[in-house]
Amino acid sequence: MDSSQQRAALHAEVARLHGTPLYVYDLSVVRRNLKRFARFDSVRYAVKANSNLAVLRALREGGARCEVVSAGEIERARAAGFTPGEMVYTADLMDRRARALVGDLKLHVNAGSASMLEDVATVCGPGQVTLRVNPGFGEGHDRKVTTGGAHSKHGIWHEELPAVRDRAEALGLRVTGLHVHIGSGLEGRFVERTVESMGSAVALFSETLERVSCGGGMSFPYAPGEEAFDLEGFAETWLAARDRWSRELGRPLTLEAEPGRLLVADAGVLLTEVCGMKSTGREGATFLLVDAGFHSMIRPLLYGAFHRISTLAEDGRPTTPKMVAGPLCESSDVFTQGKEGAPAPQALPDMERGELLMIHDVGAYGAAMASCYNSRSLPAEVVIGDDGAASLARPAINPNHQLELEKELLP
Ligand code: LLP
Q1: Are 132 and 90 in contact (CB under 8 A)?
Q2: Cα 389 from chain centroid?
Q3: 260 lines ligand 1 (CB under 6 A)
Q4: What digits encode the pLDDT tens for the residues 126-159?
Q5: How many angstroms does the Cα of residue 218 sit away from the middle of ligand 1?
Q6: Cα(404)–Cα(29) distance, rounded to whole angstroms?
């Protein structure tokens, strides 16, 4: 057996053992991806992309720190071994649960709005803070994930920074960090412009600044032939800026990257069982019906995102353009769709009930965005370790627990 046949056999085995839909993460891919960021002074993993404990632990072991955005993520990061000093809490607002935890653990906060400074001063007392800057422009693989510009809710508007500096000072907060994240799925068109904008911010906070974070958002090439993100060029530009600013300030600034997707996207596949096939008789309108749906992985529905779909191993069967659709009672429950729901069939063979399909590159924002819509379970998650052995890392979450609680409340 060659290595791809071995991997197919392993996938078939874990699907048999743990059921489908099933996420499978390869931790050796996560570790390899982390090494690509070695040139930055520090790498801060955005936990929202994939918060499975085994994934978090692998990243911590590899030397990453983490960025958390909710009380739940703080608890997960702690369980994976991250110390409070290794976490940064990023938000534009702080809810009550987060205030309690951030205060207890004295987490460093990356504040995305001026009003958060009051929260930070109240829950953590005087100390250090980072400011997330909205430089006035943004970029992303979809409008929904563009986080810079006048219509984004994220970050402190660049023109407000002088006033925010005064406010921070009045509250006893030292601005030691500046952060920018203009969107997710960046192609790199705005790197120079972002650096330039951050340069003005660096000058404003020159007395207290220690760190600059260039955020995450680096795109991943999901479709065959799509160009990979130029991480080397991106790092080069930011490192040159770091050195320039350090010279101007007369002391070393550190540069941090905050990727989510690029660390985990290609580490994950979603295995799903074919439950039937049907056709309207029209070109490209044959449907493979599978047990995963947008409750298991919502990216195609939400963003028209492309994810390659294949059988477990290349088996030489003839293919035709096929749609792959899930079990939910909603016509948008289709994995093969582009923007605005446009049909985007993929080449797949005719398949029998019980065969398995694999949806690729779902390690980022796959399981993390799954739901229990239609009262279905959240999928289980399996990890493959460095020794090539697979183990269950999260059991499926069945909403029946919730059902029991609701039954008790029925009058
Ligand atoms: N830092 C901050 C402050 C962020 O808001 C995010 C992502 C990241 C870092 C990591 O971005 P990444 O490197 O993963 O692109 N659900 C969408 C992506 C939403 C991203 C939210 N923030 C998707 O499936 O494409």
Answers
A1: yes
A2: 25
A3: yes
A4: 999 999 999 999 999 999 999 999 999 999 999 9
A5: 9
A6: 39
Residue 35 Rama label (left phi>0; alpha psi -120 to 50; beta):
alpha
Residue type, 327: P
| Predicted pLDDT at 2 | 87
Q: Is 329 a catalytic residue?
A: yes
Cα–Cα–Cα angle for 218, 345, 316, rounded to 5 degrees: 100
Map tokens 């919502």 to a residue: 298
**Is the CB of residue 215 below 6 angstroms from any atom belonging to ligand 1?**
yes
Flag whether pLDDT at 186 surpasses 90: yes
Query: Does ligand 1 have an atom closer than 6 angstroms to the CB of 179?
Result: no
What is the model's pLDDT at position 194? 97
Q: What is the DSSP string of 42-57?
A: EEEEEGGG---HHHHH
Nearest CA to 202 among 151, 146, 131, 107? 131
Q: How far is the CA of 273 from the centre of ligand 1 (A)?
A: 29
Q: What is the residue type of 226? A: E
Amino acid sitting at position 234? F
C-beta of 49 in contact with ligand 1 (< 6 A): yes
Position of tokens 């990727």? 259
* All structural domains of the chain: 38-258 (3.20.20.10), 265-406 (2.40.37.10)
pLDDT tens figures, 7-28: 999 999 999 999 999 999 999 9
Which atom of ligand 1 lies at the shortest distance from residue 258's CA? 9
